[in-house]
Amino acid sequence: MRYLTAGETHGPQLTAIIEGFPSNVNLNFEDLNHQLHRRQKGYGRGRRMQIEKDTATIAGGVRHGKTTGAPIALVVVNNDWKHWTSVMGIEPVEEDNEGKRRVNRPRPGHADLNGGLKYNQKDLRNILERSSARETTMRVATGAVARQLLAEFGIKVAGQVIRIGDVEVERQELPVDELIRITEESPVRVVDKEAEAKMIAAIDAAKEDGDTLGGIVEVIIEGVPVGLGSHVQWDRKLDGKIAQAVLSIQAFKGVEFGIGFEAAERRGSNVHDEILYTQETGFRRRTNRAGGFEGGMTTGEQIIVRGVMKPISTLYKPLQSVDIDTKEVFTAQVERSDTCAVPAAGVIMENVIAWEVANAFLDKFGGDSIEEIRTNLANFLKQVENY
Ligand SMILES: Cc1cc2nc3c(=O)[nH]c(=O)nc-3n(C[C@H](O)[C@H](O)[C@H](O)COP(=O)(O)O)c2cc1C
Ligand SMILES: C=C(O[C@@H]1CC(C(=O)O)=C[C@@H](OP(=O)(O)O)[C@H]1O)C(=O)O
C-alpha cells in the first residue's frame, strides 16, 4: 500500500491517492472526518484553524460505502483559498509578481532558506506553501482510512501529550478506550487536569511574549498481532518505518519506543521484558519496556512510541535573518502562525503510525479483499497458537 499527497497550504485543495487498499472494507466517512476535525483542534493554534472546516470528499475507489480495491482518491478543499487567489494563481502572470506576499527573509527553523537555495526560488513562498504542516491534513486522511482497516481487526490507536514546554505530565496507563475518551475532551490532550491548566498557561505566556512552544506526544497501538515487520532486512523493520513516519511530521526531531532513551542509563536486567507463557494467553511479556518491538517485529504487546516536536519556527518576535536579495541583516518574516501545535501534532502522529502498522499488517496478511485478509490472519493465529 502506498500514498502520495499534493497541494499547497493556500492553494485550492489538498489531494491524496491511496493505492493497494483492499476491497470490501466499510469506510465510515464520519470517522474519517472526525480524525480531520481532531487535527484542527488543540490549544495554541492560530486563526487559520477557524477558517478551515476540513472535510474529505472521496473521489474514487469507494462505492456504496465500501472500498472496491481501486485507488482511493481523497480531496480536502482549502476554505482560505478564496483569500489567496491572486497570490497563489496557477496561470502565468503578465505583470511582475513581486509584492504579492513575496517571502524574502527566511525564517530560522522553517524550510524557507534550504528550499530556496535547493529549488532556486527567489520567492520563498514557493517553498513554504508546500513545507507547511497543512499537508498533514492528507496524512491524517490517509491514516484515518488505514485506521478503519485496523479497527476491523480490533486494533486501536490512542495518544496523549506528555510534555509542553517545561510542563511534564505523568504518563497514564489507562485502558485505551478510556484514554481516547478523556484526551478527546482535553484541549491539550492530557488526562491530568492540573497539568492541563499549567500547559494552557505556558502556551498563553509564550504567545504573550511572541514566542512558541514544543513538546512530547505518546502514541499507543493496542491489539497488534506478533510478527509484523521483519528482522531479515533493514528496510522491513517496522519500528524503523514508524520512526521515519514520525520524523516526517513537520517539526518532529526525535522518536523513542517504550522506555526509549532511558534505556541508556539502566542495566539490561532492568530493560528487557521477561517472557511468560500460559495456555490461555500464549506468549506474553512481564513488562513492555521495549514498547512492542524486538528485532523490528511486533511482540504482540502494545506499541508505545513517543515523538518530540520542536517549538514552531515562525516567531511574532522574529529572530535574526538575512534578506535574500540584498544580503542585509533583517529580522525573519512573520507569517500567520500557531503558538503551539503539539496537541494537533499528536493526532497526526497517531494517524501516520496507523498507516505504517496497517501497511505492515497487509504485508503479512495481505490479500485483495478483507475476506482474504481475515483468512490469512486466522491461519497465522492458529499457527502461533500451535507453536
Ligand atoms: C500541526 C503543525 C502545525 C504547525 N504550524 C506551524 C506554524 O503555524 N508556523 C510555523 O512556522 N511552523 C509550523 N509548524 C512547523 C513547520 O511546518 C516546520 O517546522 C517546517 O515545515 C520545517 O520543517 P522541520 O521543522 O521538520 O525541519 C507546524 C507543524 C505541525 C506538525
Ligand atoms: C494550515 C495548517 O497549519 C499551518 C501550518 C503552518 C506551517 O508553517 O507549518 C503555518 C500556518 O499556516 P497559515 O499561515 O496558513 O495559518 C498554520 O496554520 C493546518 O494545520 O491545517
TrEMBL record:
Q: Which family does it belong to?
A: Belongs to the chorismate synthase family.
Q: Where is this region: Disordered?
A: 95-116
* Alphabetized UniProt keyword annotations: Amino-acid biosynthesis, Aromatic amino acid biosynthesis, FAD, Flavoprotein, FMN, Lyase, NADP
This protein's assembly is summarised as:
Homotetramer.
List the protein's name. Answer: Chorismate synthase
Q: InterPro entries of this UniProt entry?
A: Chorismate_synth (IPR000453), Chorismate_synth_AroC_sf (IPR035904), Chorismate_synthase_CS (IPR020541)
EC number(s) reported in the record: 4.2.3.5
Q: List positions binding FMN.
A: R130, S131, S132, Q250, A251, G295, K310, P311, I312, S313, T314, R336
Requisite cofactors: FMNH2
Q: In which pathway does it act?
A: Metabolic intermediate biosynthesis; chorismate biosynthesis; chorismate from D-erythrose 4-phosphate and phosphoenolpyruvate: step 7/7
Main EC class the enzyme belongs to:
lyase
Q: Provide the cofactor note recorded for this chain's UniProt entry.
A: Reduced FMN (FMNH(2)).
Q: Which GO terms describe its molecular function?
A: chorismate synthase activity
Classification via PANTHER family: CHORISMATE SYNTHASE
Query: What residues does NADP(+) bind to?
Result: R39, R45
